Amino acid sequence: RESMASADLEDVPSVDLMTELLRRMKCTSKPDKRLILVGPPGSGKGTQSPIIKDEYCLCHLATGDMLRAAVAAKTPLGIQAKEAMEKGELVSDDLVVGIIDDALKKPSCHKGFILDGFPRTVVQAQKLDEMLEKRGAKVDRVLNFAIDDAILEERITGRWIHPSSGRSYHTKFAPPTVPGVDDVTGEPLIQRKDDTAAVLKSRLEAFHKQTEPVIDYYSKKNIVANLSAEKSPQEVTSEVKKALS
């Protein structure tokens, strides 16, 4: 939307323009926030980030999506990233930080951002800090979605899906009327390959090994807020708001 010529704006319905203007006016009074969300798979980051994004007028930066978009748009950094991927190499930290730097120029990131899935290592955290420092900015808060591995295992391994409709059930929290069978069609339910205990265990091990040092790094700067991510989504939202006030 940012690069629209004024001619294109003539075709945007007035109500959409007004809604966006009102949103932007309401956003001017909000304080700037630069946030990092850290938490294992299933800890609820995906549930909270749209709420935080709307509440504080931030842009949501998911580095995986941004990389794919840069590659598709053939930006200079996207071209470099594509070359690395085609050689089967990891995309360098500098490249990812460069892509974040580019994204921060957009009007939607004017009030700040939510970073999710990055930084995963202390080196990445340092590079992010250096880049922000050049912009005269810094990370304000790191929200740590702390949750016991056992609770995560129950959350994730209890998930069952009806493949054709996408309806999901949970053996403990939202069980089907008949075990293993979809309520509507009576067809069998399946478990996603990623939702098994073995896959979760290896993902959690990698997460703890990589991410604990990142939490320590930000703790030394006194900007980490530990959330009790095992609570209900509403309770976690109010903990987030408290942490950000």
From TrEMBL:
Enzymatic class: transferase
Q: Does the keyword Ribonucleoprotein apply?
A: no
Species of origin reads Penstemon davidsonii
Q: Which UniProt keywords apply?
A: Kinase, Nucleotide-binding, Transferase
Reactions it catalyzes: AMP + ATP = 2 ADP
Could you describe the subunit structure of this protein?
Monomer.
Q: Which family does it belong to?
A: Belongs to the adenylate kinase family.
Stored InterPro entries: Adenyl_kin_sub (IPR006259), Adenylat/UMP-CMP_kin (IPR000850), Adenylat_kinase_CS (IPR033690), Adenylate_kinase_lid-dom (IPR007862), P-loop_NTPase (IPR027417)
- Family annotation (PROSITE patterns): ADENYLATE_KINASE
What SUPFAM superfamilies does the database record attribute to this sequence?
P-loop containing nucleoside triphosphate hydrolases
Protein's name according to its UniProt entry: adenylate kinase
State the superkingdom: Eukaryota
Where would one find coiled-coil regions in this protein? none
Matches recorded under NCBIfam families: adk, PRK00279.1-2, PRK00279.1-3
Outline the extent of the Adenylate kinase active site lid domain: 159-194
